[in-house]
Amino acid sequence: MAKVTSRSTHVFIATAAVLWLAAAGYGQDEVSSPCSNNNGGCQHMCNESISGSDGLLAYSCSCNIGYHLAEDMHNCVLVEEFLLYSDDKFIKGKVLSNVSQGYTAAILPVTTSNAGSAGLDFDARDNYIYYSDVSQNIIYRIHRNGTGKEIVSTSPNGCVEGLVVDWVAKNLYYIDSRKGTLNVVSTRNVTNQRVLLKITKKPSVQRGIVVHPNKGYIFFSEMGISRAYTDGSNLIKLGSHNQRWPRGLALDFATDRLYWCDVLSEKVQHSNLDGTDVRDIISTSIRSPWLITIHKDWMYIIDWDRDAIMKLHKLTGVLDNIEVRQPRNWLMGVKVYSEHEQLIINNHPCSIAADYGGCQKLCFAVPFKKWKISLLKARCDCPFGEMVDSDGKTCVTDPNAESMVCPNAQDFACNNMRCIPKAYVCDGYDDCHDNSDEALNCTRAEYTEQPSPVPTVVTVSGGASKCIQYRLVTTLSIVIAYLFII
Question: Mean pLDDT for the chain?
Fold first, then answer.
């Protein structure tokens, strides 16, 4: 009897100890975290650390990719200017100034195909990045925050090389070297597109293309440099004995100078917009220039011999910095993402303020002279299969337009002028990239997309913190072991 009473006493004491420890544990607060109160005052992220001197908890604020810390070291500011570049796998962004220690990424990397992106540009006001996928011959756009990826244009059986965005009239130009065409697509409505010019077919020559919306010019390189109005009219060759194999075109909008890389002479040159006053940039830092872009006093050059993007003075060629070095990845495009490089002159005839010239689908700002003063006027145009009506602004069906015919009789002509095998029609996949191959009476049940099952969400209630749970489990283990011993 005494033994039973003793054991009962021990069990009672042990149970009381468990309850006391549990009550004490749940009633006590953990060590206060500096980030627990209003996220430490940080707008984005609060990072805890241990002070080296006294061992107390400290904290610092940091920002999401695409932002940098404000002067108050708590709030975050959007990165307004950054180096935008592409290689054979990704499109990346690098801040132009090291605003925070270890901070270099300006955007989340955008994954492309293994063939890379040959064309690259942006619209800073719309926050879009445009690029071409070499293997798919598709032009995509994506918001600079990495969301909203969508197809802008496809080039059936083609080879999309350079592309450029007119940020005022909202037109995108691109070169298809396999077809030998210069094409345009409206970024306001990507279904509005047409061929502007037929140019030389030279698939082996990768070409550059730039646009000057405030002057009404578009420039592109072949074995030489050509200039046209933005609507494709008034095509001329900018003749110069110094041009041997120009490519990688760029514009200095501040001085109205045209820059290019000459592949054969391996040097950088620049001229007036009419091709006169050609000047060489002499620099021992330049070995094999391939692509170039201008920003303020600097030029950023992809040098394939160095496998790097270099920052040099745009007039002297003095090297300031190696911005990017990638010996294993093929650098394919470079721009400086900046609204400063995309200014809009007052009274631009194709701007949003002018309602895009009143044009229904495509607006081109073309140059003209009045009293020897160069000005711009709006010229409206229409996509493939349509023509401008008598009012000069709206579009109507063109009865004389050639119908879209694929070169292979066994192919299906998509609405976006892409050609695919007829066997791909109604197979449940968007092979046209505009869904026109799946929109024609495709009602077979086996190709109907089934809704994904809704996942079951299990709510886990809050309560004890991990350290309190650990204390309770430890106490219970000790008590059980004690009971077995006695």
Answer: 82
Report the C-alpha gap between 187 and 195 in whole angstroms. 15
Strand partners, 150: 141
Q: Per-residue pLDDT averaged across 360-380, rounded? A: 92
Cα→Cα distances 47→59, 149, 207, Å: 5, 32, 47
CA angle at 338 for the pair 328 and 279, rounded to the nearest 5°:
75
Q: Which of helix, strand or coil describes residue 220?
A: strand
404 contacts 413 by C-beta, under 8 angstroms: yes
Quick check: 167 and 123 in contact, CB under 8 A? Answer: yes
Q: What mean pLDDT do residues 200-224 have? A: 81
What is the value of pTM for the model shown?
A: 0.79
pLDDT at 381 over 50: yes
Beta strand pairing status for 386-388 and 395-397? antiparallel
CB-based contacts of 212, cutoff 8 Å, min separation 6: 218, 219, 251, 253, 256, 273
Reply yes or no on whether the pLDDT at 328 is more than 80. Answer: no
Q: Residue 78, by phi and psi: left (phi above 0), alpha (psi -120 to 50) or beta?
A: beta
- pLDDT in the model for residue 326: 85
406 in Cβ contact with 419 (< 8 Å) = yes
- Cβ-in-10-Å burial (0-12, 13-18, 19+) of 216 comes to buried
What is residue 228's three-state secondary structure? strand
Question: Is residue 280 scored above 50 in pLDDT?
Answer: yes
Secondary structure letter of residue 468 according to DSSP:
H
- Top pLDDT among 102 and 384 is at 384
3-state secondary structure of 473: helix
| Angle at alpha carbon of residue 444, lines to 438 and 448, rounded to 5° | 70
For tokens 């430490």, name the residue. Answer: 40
Residue showing tokens 């760029």: 250
Poorest-pLDDT segment among 253-267, 285-299, 362-376, 462-476: 462-476
Length of the chain: 486
Side by side, the strands of the sheet bearing 193-198 are 160-166, 171-176, 181-186, 193-198
Dihedral of the alpha carbons of 221, 223, 226, 231, in degrees to the nearest 10: -60
Q: What gap in Å lies between CA 180 and CA 197, rounded to an integer?
A: 8
pLDDT of residue 49: 83
6: three-class secondary structure by DSSP: helix
Q: Is the pLDDT of residue 101 over 80?
A: no
One-letter amino acid at 197 equals: L
Q: Which DSSP string corresponds to 377-445?
A: EEEEE--TTEEE-TTSSSEEE-TTPPPP--SSTTEEE-TTS-EEEGGGTTSSS-SSSSSTTTSSS---G
